[in-house]
Amino acid sequence: MGRLFGLDHALFVYGTLQFPEVLRTLLGRVPPLEPAELTGWRAAALPRRIYPGLVAATHGLARGAVLSGLTAPEWAVLDAFEDDEYDLRRVRVEATNVPVWTYVWTVAADPADWQRDRFATEHLARFAARSARWRRDLASFSDSAGPGWAGPQM
């Protein structure tokens, strides 16, 4: 993890981390975000969670953004924020074919796709506020899922 920072090690984000409100609460800033797509994958809804997981899908297309310019401490925050069920892997984004890192979901996911717009409308404000509390007081969150929000299925 210590070598994963700077312009050469970008992160494809497809869920809550593509929202500037969440990035600002976690990192204190919004690093450069460029819209991107990842073929062969989809942002899947997850059982009892309001955030998605990236899963392989033969005809899938995951829309998100490439987050660049992360510092080593910022990588550490994002890694701590993610569930234990995510695995950091290299992928190639559409159009540029540039290798980037992303968090891939490693356990069962729903057959339905995550609904970005629904999350933004119904959950983003509360999610960003809870992310800020997590960032200020990590010890107050007892689960392994970063802020670990179970919630209604998306």
UniProtKB/TrEMBL annotation:
Keyword Thylakoid applies: no
Residues covered by the Gamma-glutamylcyclotransferase AIG2-like domain: 11-107
UniProt KW Transferase keyword: yes
Gene3D superfamilies: Gamma-glutamyl cyclotransferase-like
Residue ranges of the TM segments: none
Entries under Pfam families matching the protein: GGACT
Keyword tags: Transferase
PANTHER family, alphabetized: AIG2-LIKE PROTEIN D (PTHR31544:SF2)
Record-given protein name: Putative gamma-glutamylcyclotransferase
